[in-house]
Amino acid sequence: QVQLVESGGGWVQPGGSLRPSCAVSGSDFSISAIEWYRQAPEKGREFVASISSGGSVIYADSVKGRFIIFRDNAKNKVYLQMNSLQPEDTGLYSCKMTWRGVQYWGQGTQVTVSS
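Given the sequence above, the corresponding structure tokens read:
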């Protein structure tokens, strides 16, 4: 059974950093692309970043230069290093993987940026 579990969210002041992670089990993680999304209160879900099995990355314009996505295949984890966080980065951050044509989502980890 494929499972994605996020952790590492929390509360941080503007300008701070957080590094949530997405742990994957039940699939061949090394050949899977992983995507991060976020959803702010009363807003739709938006794409944040993705990383392919080969390490190619894509970022949303809103996070370019501030966020870094990377993976550790030995640990079956993908990380999202978030720097220079701003209140507009607040939201529920979730990771997604498509495996054999099926999309799998984690439960999400809450990130709150406020003073």
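The first strand starts at residue 3 and ends at 7. Try to locate this feature in the token string yourself.
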